[in-house]
């Protein structure tokens, strides 16, 4: 559960960062240059390519968030099932330990 929640938080952070980048891209004029950091070097990139990359990344992150949230719900569901099993077992055990009246 902790790993799934951690993954969801990480994806949420990545989504926020990419949404910020997308918002900044919308402020650009066609003549503005975009540079991509590749290792220690800045490489010029076409605006359309950069925007497409960010949109693709956002789409991927959104699908990953849905997948991870599904995992979280599944784990929560299994935890609730186990909790119900434990309560039923405890109740049955308590009933067998009570002396007859």
TrEMBL record:
GO molecular function: protein-folding chaperone binding; unfolded protein binding
InterPro entries: PFD_beta-like (IPR002777), Prefoldin (IPR009053)
Presence of the UniProt keyword Coiled coil in the record: yes
GO cellular component terms attached to this protein's record: cytoplasm; prefoldin complex
Keyword annotations of the record: Chaperone, Coiled coil
GO biological process: chaperone-mediated protein complex assembly; protein folding
Superkingdom, taxonomy of origin: Eukaryota
Transmembrane feature ranges: none
Parts forming coiled coils: 58-92
SUPFAM superfamilies per UniProt: Prefoldin
Family in the record: Belongs to the prefoldin subunit beta family.
Protein name: Prefoldin
Organism name: Cylindrobasidium torrendii FP15055 ss-10
